[in-house]
Amino acid sequence: MNEKKIRFITILFLFLTAVIVFRLLYFQVIERDRYLSYIKRQYFSKERIILPRGIIYDRNKKILSISINTLKLYAIPKYIPHEKRVLLADYLSKIIKVSKYKLIRKLNSKRGYVVLAENIDRNLKDRLNELRTELKVWNFGIIETSKRYYPYKSLAGTTIGFVRKDTGKGASAIEYMLNKKLGGGFIEVPFLKDAKGNPLNFEINVKDKIKNNLNAVLTIDSNIQFIAEETLKKLVKLRKPKEAAILLIDPFTGDIIAAATYPNYDPNRYWKYRNHRNIIFHNAYEIGSLAKPFILAEAIDEGYLRNLRKVYCEKGKIIIDGVRIKDHKKFKYLSPEEVIIKSSNIGTIKIALNLDYSSIYKKLKELGFGKSTRTFPGEASGILKEDLRPVNVAYASIGQSWTATILQVAVAYSAIANGGFLVKPRIVKEFIDSEGKVVEKIRIKLKKKVLSEKSVKWLRETLKRVVEEGTAKSGRSDYFSIAGKTGTAQKYDPKIRALSTEKFYTWFAGYFPADNPRLTVVIFVNEPQKIKKWEFIGGGTVSAPVLKELVDRIMYYYKQKPDKNLAKN
Question: Do 200 and 190 contact (CB within 8 A), yes or no?
Fold first, then answer.
């Protein structure tokens, strides 16, 4: 071989080597991601597996929400002979209690991969594995996954919320709020496919993906929650309202003990309900006469009540800035205490118009109105805009023209019960690990003093009389003292473009026992229906009557002795 041929072959060899090296670099470096993506699409598919979350407990460590380990059963029908499909369906139906014919339909499908059943009891895993061995059906498989379970069903449903079954993450309420702490979610487990796209084998390594989730202990007492929900159901059955709620909180700590709502739902079947809102936190309403005690508190602080013996209530109507405002009765002269006990609009308005208008709004804002407590996801703020025109001050003083959440009302009335302090509501007490060790505590927060000692003393005495002899006497207990105030607010009717004479919000807000408060209570009803045509709809006739049963049952649960002199009753 001459020198020219050797040189040519050498150059050709080097050239071909360079081309090969270049192509390798091109595929492995420049186009690596694109080709890997193509290979994965061709040879891999994915199965979504829901990961377990932390447990949600009530304050007594009763389980409210838990992730249960379950099994998902799959098959690759193409590689299962027909006679074994029938056998598999027959034996499997007896183990998992699913129709044999439903299983056969799935096994005879033309799809490469089918899910035969989901949410199967994990305790059946050994039996199912034995079945695979007995029948030698290796293309029938088991995947460990989980589902969220709520043992008390709809109890506190709108407060606890739900976890989406497709993502494994909380989608509303506390479940959503605690996503980072409780963990969960899903992973996508890859499995191989042959050249025709048929599944061959799963690659499962789930344990490495599960993080150290925390468990949450709530302030909710499931026993009191049950009592509140039963009481609310009776009220709803009787009055057939659009919405209703009972909220109970500890006035000294801000702990939410029970939050019963109508409508409610079962988180185990969340997809069957259109509405997942919790009206205690998400909605704001006009509070009507519940505002009156705070106007009188401001009057005390400004010294206006010092020499005021009686208020002339104009026989039930007054005109301010050309606007006529009515009372629910034609009162003449009332003492300041009677203005609250009998709930006179005119009496409250006349007192308010003699105060510093800006101080009235300041007092309401200090009590927490107009600002979200940031206790619950999606919580409303309500609307409280300062308007110093006399007619607007008049409406504001009787709880019209501004709105508040049910929670804000409970916080404001807790300030009367606890001696004048604004509390920060709390719905989560602490987070614990899997061994029950406390990892993080949520501190109790008393923000500041918002009511003076003098006004608290006057209000507590007066609000007791409201229940014993005033507008809330229909809720009077024979055994336990209760203090509070009824409220009624007319709803705006867009059809007539005016306040309705048929549609109302009705309220009761207060605390019990009156002299040694244990709980603050708020009872709210939206558009209650009349029982009798001549009936007057108001807080005293709708919201207050449920008090007696509610308070007596709760205090019995607490094993607290009656604080009333039974001999006099």
Answer: no
Same domain as 502, residue 416: yes
Cα 514 to its chain centre, rounded Å, is: 29
Domain annotation covers residue 12: no
Residue 554, Cβ density class (10 Å: 0-12 exposed, 13-18 middle, ≥19 buried): buried
pLDDT score of 541 more than 50: yes
Q: Give the span between the Cα atoms of 506 and 121, in whole angstroms.
A: 47
pLDDT tens, position by position, 250-298? 999 999 999 999 999 999 999 999 999 999 999 999 999 999 999 999 9
Q: Which residue(s) pair with 148 in the sheet?
A: 67
Is 548 within a domain?
A: yes
- Length, in residues, of the chain: 569
CA distances from 168 to 66, 176, 186, 437 (A): 12, 11, 6, 25
Question: 357 Cβ partners below 8 Å, 6+ apart?
Answer: 388, 393
Within a domain: 410: yes
Q: Supply the DSSP symbol for 53.
A: B
136 and 182, same domain (yes or no): yes
- Count CB neighbours of 208 within 10 A: 6
DSSP secondary structure of 472-492: TGGG--SSS--EEEEEEEEEE
Could you tell me what percentage of the chain is helix, strand and coil, using 3-state DSSP and rounding each to the nearest 5?
A: 40, 25, 35
Could you list the residue range(s) of the whole structural domain that residue 350 is in?
222-272+284-557
CB atoms within 10 A of CB 232: 23
pTM over 0.70? The answer is yes
| Residue type, position 563, single letter | D
State which of 203, 218, 233 marks the end of a domain. 218
Sheet of 199-202, strand order: 44-50, 186-193, 199-202
Q: pLDDT digit string (tens) for 506-532? A: 999 999 999 999 999 999 999 999 888
CATH code (residue 122): 3.90.1310.10
What is the separation, in whole angstroms, between the first and last Cα of the chain? 129
Structural domain tally of the chain? 2
Q: Distance between CA atoms of 262 and 117, rounded to whole angstroms?
A: 35
Clarify whether residues 432 and 395 are in a common domain.
yes
